[in-house]
Amino acid sequence: MLQPTISRTTGTGPRVALALLLVVLATPGLLAQSTLRFVTPRNMATALGPTDLELALDGPPGVSLVRIELFVDGRPLVTLSQPPWKTVWDAGDASRGHRITAVAQLSDGTRAEAVLNTSALRINQVEQVDLVNLYVIVRGRSEGYVTDLAQDDFRILEDGRPQVIQRFTTEQKQLNIGIVLDTSLTMRGNRLDVAQKAALNFLEVLQPGDQAMVVPFSDEVHVPDTLTDDRQVLARAIESTVAQGGTALYDAIWKTARRLRDFEGRRVIVLLSDGKDEAASGLEPGSLHTLDEALDQALRSEAMVFAIGLGRGLRDLDFYRRETVESILSRLAGETGGRVVFLTRAGQLKKAFQSVALDLRHQYSLAYASDDRARDGKWRRIRITVPDRDVEVITRKGYFAPGHERGATAASH
């Protein structure tokens, strides 16, 4: 290959240009390199909620895309293996920017990479772009999941007022899961063994981009510092649980929801418990937080609670003798858009965890901008219907308006 020689004498410009041109001509493919690029969104644009990611390849004839791997902030999002080269990504509330990396395998054996950055919302943008994001499960009255609905089939009411759906997709968003396991003394023996096996099987629901953490609780709640997509780490955490002590049920919900708040995407708490919130002595509550505080935190964190209640103790009244454990678990699941399953035998746990996994894989994603622009932090009730179909619609019952961190609790509504 020719190497250009740059002379420092007067009049060398033409010689340098000629030498560089010869280098280019002598290097096959230098003028026809393949370039991977994002079609949407634009670089440094603000991405909010469900966002289209589309890519294209610019290159010489005959070179095509074979596969594209997408990463968000270093974590795997999805692998595209055929056109159209696009997907939908849940960008969350745009409270911070993200780095999206695409790595492509090309038909000529080479690789290409594209990087795109999104921007966080500016303070003066917030008033115009607050979206209420909802994840919705639809079941037929006499059949399974209803998966053929379109955006126009849904109706949303906020405090009785119709709202306009602005985003709709059936694409599955990233899961951030807290697997919250009751390891109190009442779970000892076969009950804990079966629960561990069922939880291990549940890990199979995790797909690329999903993350989870295992939160065992008895008298104390042990919440990991972060989530992980490493199934071996999660499996070891499940297998290392030991039955001991009392039941800090409300603290477990509160702390897990608070930790999930730091992660974007679908926030899910999968809870297994066999009894009421109570200390091992039976003389005091097991938690520092109350049920209302636990529910409040789950709603503020937009975490769906899927509760599995096990055993005959579910009909016992709570420590304050106000309501049964069944009622408590039903309220946690119902208000947050999850579901509750009651079991009499530990042998049914595998099927219960599988039913939760199916729910998580059959969700519609809807978003709307409320017509109430007040930033008062108040609780707002949501109702979603499918008027033309005889179906059951499962989603969270409401949300707290932007504004003050503390406001009216959902328990009071």
Describe it.
It is a single chain. This protein has 413 residues and is of the alpha+beta class. It contains 8 helices and 20 strands. The strands form 5 sheets. A 5-stranded parallel β-sheet has the order 13-12-14-15-16, sandwiched between helices. Helix 3 (190-202) packs antiparallel against helix 4, helix 3 (190-202) runs parallel beside helix 8 and helix 6 (291-300) packs parallel to helix 7 (325-336). The chain is globular and about 75 Å long. The N and C termini lie far apart (78 Å).
Cross-sheet strand order for the largest sheet: 13-12-14-15-16
Distance between the termini: 78 Å
Structural class: alpha+beta
Biggest pleated-sheet summary:
5 strands, parallel
Q: Rounded to an integer, what's the Rg over CA atoms? A: 26 Å
Number of strands: 20
Global geometry = globular
Please tally the helical runs, counting DSSP H or I stretches of 4 or more residues: 8
Outline of the structure:
This protein has 413 residues and is of the alpha+beta class. The protein has helices spanning 13-25, 126-129, 190-202, 231-239, 249-260, 291-300, 325-336, 349-360; strands at 35-40, 50-58, 65-72, 75-80, 86-90, 98-106, 111-118, 132-140, 155-158, 161-163, 165-169, 175-182, 211-217, 266-273, 303-310, 340-343, 364-368, 379-385, 391-394, 398-400.
